[in-house]
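Predicting holo structure, zinc ion bound.
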Amino acid sequence: MNGIPENQTFDFAPNVSQPILTKREKKAAYMKEYAKKRWINRPDAKAKYEKQKKEWYAIPENKKRMNDRVRVRRRTEHDYREKMNDYYSKWEQNNIAKKRYRQTEYRKNFPQKAAAHKSVYDAIEHGRLVKPTNCQICGVRSKLHAHHHDYAAPLDVQWLCPLCHGEMHAGRMRINHALA
Ligand SMILES: [Zn+2]
Ligand SMILES: [Zn+2]
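Done. Tokens:
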């Protein structure tokens, strides 16, 4: 299923078999409808609400808490993932020069990492390594990055979509690698 090995475990469970509309998504759709009707004929109430909202967000802790919630939500939403992964690959297509430049810089700055990546692509070319089609964390079908847990073991990789890969490196996602 989605390229995730049966015995692999995760600290947070990527529930890829969920129906398209989760309970939370249904609620979100309901709230959206409700928000449309809420302020009809009540401009004063709306102004008051907006003011309170602004004040609430002005408090750094509140803002941070909300941002964290959004982050968690994004991490689990496939639509968002597909959209962003699409966006990244389009960006790469339209910014080839920038991408090349970054690649060259990367090779200069991180020779060990670059060598590990080369081993991976050589191994794929010669059939020693098979690249799956779906991200091994969120299961989304996407362009995949080979993530190394240890560059000394260049062929021990996990295949992640660009978004999961970014989150992995930002330390927001921890994988139990023991069984992988
Ligand atoms: Zn992913
Ligand atoms: Zn990585």
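Residues 10-19, 175-180 have pLDDT under 50 and may be disordered.
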